[in-house]
Each structure stands twice: as structure tokens, then as C-alpha cells.
Known about the structure:
Elements: H1 3-8, H2 15-23, E1 27-29, E2 32-33, E3 47-49, E4 52-55, E5 62-67, E6 96-98, E7 106-112, H3 115-122, E8 130-136, H4 142-150, E9 153-154, E10 159-160, E11 165-170, E12 173-178, H5 185-191, E13 197-205, E14 208-209, E15 219-221, H6 224-227
Parallel strand pairs: 7-13
Antiparallel strand pairs: 1-2, 1-3, 3-4, 5-7, 5-15, 6-7, 8-12, 8-13, 9-10, 11-12, 13-14
EC number: 5.4.99.-
Family: Belongs to the pseudouridine synthase RsuA family.
GO molecular function, one term: RNA binding
Amino acid sequence: MRLDRFLSNLPTLNRQQARLRLSQGQVRVNDEVVREPLTEVRAFDRIELGEQLLQAGRAARYYMLNKPQGCVSATRDPRHRTVLDLLDEADREELHIAGRLDFNSTGLILLSNDGLWSRRLTQPASEISKTYLVQTEQPITEQMRLRFAQGLYFRFEDLVTRPAQLEILTSHSARLSIHEGRYHQIKRMFGQFGNKVLALHRESMGPYRLDPQLAPGAYRALSATEIGLI
């Protein structure tokens, strides 16, 4: 929210009065005087007007989790364990998931209460690459690799997928990098060749690679350096 709008939402100030207080240097954000009305503020910011504390700000939190099989990428579910159930954290219901995985898929999940950070990871315009290890029922062929690189037509959405990089590892396994996240996309891509995906494990999202020290179901907080990668 813009700072002038935040201030004008107070019962004692209108927009003009808010801008006057800003110009007079009476407003501090995170202990710094701010005079620019268009400054964006968030729930994590401490905002003061003179000696009055308007918003204390809450801590931004960022976690990396190694999702196990049989776990739902949701904040709540009436029948199944969710990824939030794996976290031993206060107020975990404030967290949301940046990039979901299917019920039986495994690997990297990122969680945060910072919506702007999460959107930078997941919005299509960011063109974030996501890399997966894939195991299939039938052999993976050179024809599949070439077709993935060209893009595949999805009739339901009436679109062609963006070029994807398929690195064949063994006859039935590959590393796949995609730049979008459509519904069951990887299973549908292999499905066009009649090849069923048996296992899917996400290794990375953009600059974030799953920590090899994290066992399935384990998680850790991101470091300040990691948070600033996007």
C-alpha cells in the first residue's frame, strides 16, 4: 500500500493532511524519515507518526521444505496432512506456499508470509525456471527431448507450452527444466507420448536449490542472502 494511503486510512487524517505530515518529516518507516507519499509499505514495516506508533510491523519469514510423498500442498485439508503440518512454527497459518507440488510429488517447497516475495517467484512474467527429476514407465526417447524443446500443444488451454529442456539420464529417468507451471504440466507432457510419470521430484526453483541436508519432511529457514536472491 502507498504510504499516503496508509496514513489517510487513519481516522484522524485525510489525504491532504497525510501528505502535509510527510512533507514536514513527521513520518518514519523502519526508523527512517520518509517524505515521499508514493513509498510502498507492507505489513512488515514499522511506521511511526511523530511519537505515535501506527504499525509495529511483523517479522517476515521464509522457509525451504523437502516435501515427502502423500502430503498436500495446501494450508489446510480435511483428509490429508498438509505441508504446514510439517512445520513446528508459531502462527504457521500465516504462511503460504510459493509453488505447489502434487500429492505424490516430492522435493523443494518454499513458504513465506511475504506475498510480494512469493509472487516474484511464481508469476509468469518472472520466467523462473523449475527443475525436476522424472522417472517414467516407458523409455524416454530423443524424439521426446526434441519435442519438449519445441513446445507441446495443450488442447484444453489451446496453447503451446514454452520450450523445455529435457536431459535424458537413463532409459527411464531425466532431468526436466520448465519455465511455467500449468496444471499437471509434466505428467501431461509425457502423457502425449503415452508415457506415465511414476515419480516427480523438484530440485530447484530459480536460484533456490533443495538443501541436500534436508530429509523428506524436514525444513529450514532461508538465510538473509538466500532471501535476497530474487
